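Section 5: illustrative case.
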């Protein structure tokens, strides 16, 4: 474990989203983090409608003890990429399933980052929100044995729940 991480085990994950309308999807990330016992905060930040708020958050995220940022956005989904441009913290992007293009717009917008500023892009919609939280948990698990145990239990419960034969 890194010395700095050992000293401060107060790890937090940020779950940010472009709009209230994204919360239905992003709430699934919160459910997973709760199960893993990981502290998190949720915020509405829009790259387009509230750019100053987004900048304020991203520029202070490390100082505020966030270790991973999950960012959900839909349509012209610039939020994850803009946050990644401001902070070196890992940013996991969740493409929200938009009404008009079913999230393909969000996916391409989040995935097609220029080299140099990465965003870890997840699947469109609910699967993406769940997997972003599992991935954030896997990152935190490297530094927190309690989270590692919970994550491995969660995975083995999932494995056990898969029936051998269809009914
Ligand atoms: C994006 O625009 C948000 O992330 C949201 O997915 C989309 C639509 O926002 P609303 O018009 O529903 O507020 O910035």
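Designed sequence:
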């Amino acid at each position: 474990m890194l010395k700095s991480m050992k000293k401060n085990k107060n790890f937090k994950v940020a779950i940010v989203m472009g709009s209230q309308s994204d919360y239905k999807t992003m709430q699934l990330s919160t459910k997973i983090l709760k199960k893993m016992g990981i502290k998190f905060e949720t915020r509405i930040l829009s790259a387009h409608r509230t750019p100053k708020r987004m900048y304020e958050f991203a520029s202070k995220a490390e100082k505020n003890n966030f270790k991973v940022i999950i960012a959900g956005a839909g349509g012209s989904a610039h939020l994850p990429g803009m946050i990644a441009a401001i902070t070196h913290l890992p940013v996991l992007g969740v493409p929200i399933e938009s009404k008009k293009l079913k999230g393909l717009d969000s996916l391409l917008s989040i995935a097609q980052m220029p080299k140099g500023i990465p965003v870890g892009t997840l699947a469109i919609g609910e699967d993406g929100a769940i997997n972003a939280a599992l991935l954030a948990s896997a990152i935190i698990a490297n530094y927190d044995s309690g989270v590692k145990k919970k994550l491995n239990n969660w995975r083995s419960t999932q494995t056990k729940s898969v029936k051998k034969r269809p009914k």
